[in-house]
Amino acid sequence: MSATPAVASSIYNTIALVVRPNTAGIEDSVRDVLDFLKQSGYSVVFETETAEHLNMPDIPSMSAQGIGEKADVVIVMGGDGTMLGIARQLAPYEVPLIGINQGRLGFMTDIPRDGMLPVLAKILGGTHKAERRSLLEGRVLRDGKPIHIGLAVNDVVVARGAGSGMVELRVDVDEHFMYNQRSDGLIVSTPTGSTAYALSAGGPLLHPALGGIVLVPIAPHALSNRPIVLPESSEIVIEIKRGRDITVNFDMQTFASLTAQDRIHIRRSPHTITFLHPEGWSYYNTLREKLHWNEYPSGDGKI
Fold it and tell me: Is 253 labelled as part of a ligand binding site?
């Protein structure tokens, strides 16, 4: 690792670290970041689960709520799943997030491990690009009473079990009937999630600045069922008409089991999350790097 870079005067004081557990070799990277932050004069805390997995008892720990109330910025060392989990918990507190990629794809954890300290120095010194992302909130109602409430950075997904048949869903938008759909399920996605499961199911890419909501059917029975982009002000109600072993999940991380006549009310959350990117960051660069837009198909590349 190169020498610790100097840090300019920072607008941040307390920095929280959230680290993906059970990642081989991650302790060395964590120690490098800790040494850098301490030498730069920052107060550092671990998120509670991070502290439980790392043998570094000299670093104090806080719950997500404590971090939201006390920390000025959060550094997430892991993959996009780690970022999704903590982002949902911190959304009500408006604490900005910085992502160092220890995973595979790294759409949200966009700082590579190699050379991370000079990049952190610049971001914490105020040289960065701040970007706000929207979330979805969903309420699952059974007999008119809520049984589950969740937030999603990427998507809310209603889907059948692996061994069951198609589900039948009724979808209403802003109290207007849209359609009855027979399919394997339905994805309701934010622009952030438009590069995740929704994209794999044939949905469109949405630039994060657009703020729309995407509905993408999963393997619909009728070929006329197509993805649609709705205004971000829309309220979507999905009613389970028929099916077995149906679940609704939020970012594939929190689940609720559903039965016939359950209704899921989905709308944009009043909360947002803020990512701090390196100077010069571009959404289009991310698409090229992660989705390989700049590569020709196999062959000689000639048209």
Answer: yes
